Amino acid sequence: MRPVIVFLREPPKFPFVRIHRLGFMLSLLLMVVSAGLLATRGLNFGIDFKGGIVMEVKTLSGNADLDQMRGKLNGLGLGEVALQSFGAPNDVLIRLPRQEGGDAAQNRAAERVHATLGNGYDYRRTEVVGPKVGGELIRAGTIATVLATLAIAGYVWFRFEWQFGIGAVFSLFHDVFTALGLFSALQLEFNLATLAAILTIAGYSINDKVVIFDRVRENLRKYKSLPLKDLLDLSLNETLSRTLMTSTVTALAVLALLIFGGAVIRGFSAAMLWGIVAGTYSSLFLAAPLLLYVKPRRSGEKAEAIKAK
Amino acid sequence: MLKFQSWKTSLVMAICAIGVILASFNLMSPKTLALMPSWVPTPRISLGLDLQGGSHLLLEIDMNSVIAERLNSVVEELRPQLIKNHIGYTELTVHGNQVVIALRNQAQSDAVSDLARKVDSSLQQGSDSSGAVTLQFTDQAMLARKRSAIEQSIEIIRRRIDETGTKEPTIESEGDDRILVQLPGIDNPEHVKALLGRTAKMTFRLVDMDVTPQDAQHGALPPGDELLPADDHVKREGQASLYVIKRHILVDGQNLTDAQASFDNNNEAVVSFKFDDIGARRFGDATTANVGKLFAIVLDNKVISAPVIREPILGGSGQISGNFTVQSAQDLALLLRAGALPAPLTIIEERTVGPDLGADSIRAGTTASFVAIGLVAAFMVLFYGLFGIYANIALFFNLCLLLAALSILGATLTLPGIAGIALTMGMAVDANVLVNERIREEVRNGRSVMSAIDNGFSRAYATIIDANVTHLIAGAFLFELGSGPVKGFAVTLCLGILTSLFTTTMVSRLLVVWWLRRTRPKTIPI
Known about the structure:
- Chain A is α+β, with helices and mostly antiparallel strands.
- Chain A contains ten helices and six strands; from the N terminus they run H-E-H-E-H-E-E-H-E-H-H-E-H-H-H-H.
- In chain A, the strands form two sheets. Chain A has a four-stranded antiparallel sheet with strand order 3-4-2-5. Chain A has a two-stranded parallel ribbon with strand order 1-6.
- In chain A, strand 3 (about 80-85) and strand 4 form a beta hairpin.
- By secondary structure, chain B is α+β, with helices and mostly antiparallel strands.
- Chain B has three domains: about 5-45 and about 355-520, Multidrug efflux transporter AcrB transmembrane domain (Multidrug efflux transporter AcrB transmembrane fold); about 65-140, Hypothetical Protein, Haloacid Dehalogenase-like Hydrolase, Chain: A, domain 2 (2-Layer Sandwich); about 195-350, Gyrase A, domain 2 (2-Layer Sandwich), CATH 3.30.1360.200.
- Chain B has helices at about 5-25, 30-35, 50, 65-85, 110-120, 140-165, 190-195, 215-220, 275-290, 325-340, 355-410, 415-445, 450-480, 485-520; strands at about 45, 55-60, 90-95, 100-105, 125, 135, 170-175, 180-185, 200-205, 225-230, 240-250, 255-265, 270-275, 295-300, 300-305, 315-325, 345-355, 410-415.
- In chain B, strand 12 and strand 13 form a beta hairpin.
- Chain B is elongated.
- Strand 5 (about 120-130) of chain A pairs antiparallel with strand 17 (about 345-355) of chain B.
């Protein structure tokens, strides 16, 4: 059985290197915009990081009357109560800010909401996070992301050469940072699952770069006199069909999650989808062209030596 | 690359078969599984609380109070010793995590040190800026106390939760001072939270009738006494709201052997209790010596009741009366039976998911996964034809092996975990894409069928390994970072990478080798 469609039967001759400055500029722009957004609007931290209370309730009969619920809950003096219809008209998400008075106060507030709304609702989900846990999660999350990036760069350095490591770290930083920018721009909730998605993005993005670096290294040994920019173009075009195929397949899987996976993991899926798009873009227009500036060694001796070890 | 020894072939097939069987156990109902002969292990993936519904509570132990309480009892034991040995002091208190003793005569500090060591050998002596003697626990003793406080708390929590009839709770320590409690199937944990929120330390002590609470409030509190409020919930009309209670404990809750809710002669709810032998003797002696005085039943530093001792109570049993409802009497009896926590607990995180939302999540996650797998499979056939079908067969075994691995490891499947499965399915075909693209390239470079396929596999492998190792690194950090659902995601992601490495490098290669042997093709359909 033959394939119905053959994608890029012949490797294309796309001038990645010639337009790489355009790519750099676009990335720079995206990063500046992201930095601006993060500085001004910031991230919409969920209760995992901020502490506070989230309850998802469903009316047992009829649609939810948000105004009436808001009136009841605002009377409790628990700070700014945010109500939001969640998925269905009888499904409501209630958010309460972190309560003053430490960990025990969060629980008391949740109990009061429960008592005020009464028995006309199905309490689908209650999440109460105290300020202490939130602070720890921010710290643990930041440390994990930084360490993961460094560990990946270290591995790339070990397997390739330090020049490749730099390209990897830089584009990885770009992918993660613009993902944060996207979350700031859309004010999507940033929670623990989002952080997990960001780390997964890092893993996915590097996977893509490694495949291209691998080809660059192979071609460095094969074509000893080819100018570096032609060699990079050749490597990128040779692997282009694979890069796009894999990205499309993975994006399809994530798209299915985004559409059918339910509201609970929507932010997670959105971050992942962005990561695939940004990761593919940065492999082609950032990671590989960056090698032009750090110039990997051409002889291949060192690489051979490592392999022999 | 294209040689497969027969033992290797059998091994790959055996692993796949075991994978399919183990994965299928997860689709069977428990009833069908029960029909299996007992020697067949039937592990199943357990669903996380976000899928099956339930309550996740993270509790923190107040370690300062563990230490403070122990130091307080050191002070109480030391006080009579100092007096007996004629050691004069101007101050004997607990300050932070140490006991401070200001001596009249500095020369006696060695004697204090000897006495302190007799009371508790893990005390370390020092002195503060004003020259007073200080006693504090060695770091080692501190650590041991914290550890034992955690262990004790877990035991008590388990007993309390078991009494409520909750099925299969998980109670484990987390970090230095935390306990994670997971209660599957509980969608309204208020009762459990109320039970865990009480220390339930009960003591029987004498009321000091030489001073009135009002005088004591204004500074005339005798040493060795403390001022305690009445418990508002069970306070009766006409009962005082403050008591001066002697710190000395006659008997405490540890000497109880049983406690039950029952009714007294007036048909009011009470808690009846029984002491063990030691408790009964001590209580008997104390009541014999103090007829006519008041004794107080103190629970968590609140006075439940303070009856008059009319006659010596020698039978070793009694009743606690207060303004109880049937429920509150039952709860108190439960708490007394289960025992006191070594220190108060605070709930610092709660995540409760109702069974409906859990079921919805399972449905959404399953739908999304099937759609994802369907799309990936269709895409592979469309773009790679026969080799795409082989990739899909490998993908099927990959899914089975992943589910089997999750079952064997007893891993917990969470909603992000399901997302991880869908994502792995997308990324698993990457290896096939790499191999297939490489084969195409080799064909383009004019190689024969055999050598193109051989080269395609062998050249793609180094890349596949590199790409997957970096991915595993990210996965490992996710696992370290994560709690609950996120950890579930990291587990499926990492396992998925490993199983997909196996299926793409072994299973799909085996399929291609068989096809080569069977058809001896002149061209490659790719």
